[in-house]
Amino acid sequence: MNHTTMCLSQQSKLIYRSFPRVLARKSFHMALLIFLGAMPGYSLPTIKAAQIPFFSQPFAVSWQYVSEQTVSLTPAVEGDVVYLPLSVGDIVSLKITDGSLLWRADTGGEFSAAPVADGRGVYVASELGADAPMPTPRATGVLRALGRNSGITLWRRTLQSPIRGALVFDQNILYGGASDGMIYAIHKDTGETLWMAQHDASFSSQPVLEGERLFIGNEKGALLCLNTKTGKTLWRYQTRGAIRGPVAVGNGVVFFGSADTHVYALKATDGRLRWRARTGAEVQAVTYTSKGLVVASLDNFVYFLSVGRGIRIWKRQLAGRIAAQPLTVENGALFNPLTGDALVALDLNDGKQLNTLPIGEGNNTAASPVMSGNMLLVTTRRGLIAFSGAKGSRAAVGVRKPL
């Protein structure tokens, strides 16, 4: 036995004698580790702390914007501002930190698609009613940009038919599909139409951008992949039901759901079928995560499928239909069923309920919950509720102060 080993043995005995015998070996080992950590040239092994599931952490009601005019469209968030669409074409700009009103604007029609926002302002699509003055005999759609600071109209573009579902944009261009089968590419700064592409069915879906590809589904069940620069159709895949939700793209594969009760996985480059999996009803939402696919269908079930083959890992039934896109973060997913008085968080590992987020009886809508930093924003039938996360955590759900 060398000198170092002998010293270590002697020190170990001293440490052991200093503990009551009821602590036994585990406490002795812990004290020995502390002693070794103080030895020159010796480093303790790294011990990983147990990670608490994201959606099981507490959230407190931070503020509420009260309104009886909310609609089932997801608000747009950019920086420290949220833009909430209301009925009769009104839109309000609220400060995320405290819910204070920055401005309110009237667009002159009913919103036809969920808005989007960037650092310049918010972009809204609306539909002119029968009593509204028409720019041309047939034109019923309007797309406009409102300034971030004041809500004034920066530009306004008249469309033959309103854009449905949602808008999407890249650095310079807005994209949207209209009820007459037209897809538009509009310059964000000027409102200039860069290209239009006519198709044989109406759109009421959420388009998705991936590089220079635009994915959008139509009411006749076709998923289209278009070149964002030209509007040319790169490929088309036909299903037997309407496609209204957004696609999810991961590892070169496009995942989406159809009203024909199936989930599809296609190769993103050419649209070739990789696999398809059946659910119990029309598929409303498909979300890609690192663990698998979160699928919501109109039979009130949530399915969790493997990415590679579409094999069902688990399924869970919720209280009502899930019309809104779920919010997924790390190990959890937050759902807003149309029936009930709360949002529900599920663990992606096993589908078990992590938590509920009460928002009031009959208050659920088809708008998706959104997050900005540590703030969770939920659109209800009686306004917008902001929940703030616990300090020092990236938590999501669990209410301290019931409504």
Please describe the structure with a list of short key phrases separated by commas or semicolons.
mainly beta, four-stranded antiparallel β-sheet, 43% strand, disordered C terminus
Structure characterization notes:
With 403 residues, this protein is mainly beta. Helix content is 7%, strand content 43%. It has helices spanning 3-17, 24-37, and strands at 59-66, 76-78, 81-85, 90-95, 101-106, 110-111, 113-114, 116-117, 121-127, 141-147, 153-159, 165-166, 168-169, 173-177, 182-187, 193-198, 208-210, 213-217, 222-227, 233-238, 248-250, 253-257, 262-267, 273-278, 283-288, 293-297, 301-305, 312-317, 327-329, 332-335, 342-347, 353-358, 370-372, 375-380, 383-389. Strands 6, 8, 9, 10 and 11 form a five-stranded antiparallel beta sheet that branches. Strands 1-35-34-33 form a four-stranded antiparallel beta sheet, with no helix packed on it. A hairpin with a 4-residue loop joins strand 22 and strand 23. The chain is globular, with a radius of gyration of 26 Å. The protein starts with a helix and ends in a 14-residue tail after the last strand.
In a nutshell, what does this entry contain?
With 403 residues, the chain is mainly beta. 7% of the residues lie in helices and 43% in strands.
Radius of gyration: 26 Å
Shape type: globular
Based on secondary structure, the structural category is mainly beta
How much of the residues is beta strand, in percent? 35-45%
- What's the tally of helices? 2
Poorly predicted ranges (pLDDT <50, ≥5 residues)?
2-50, 391-403
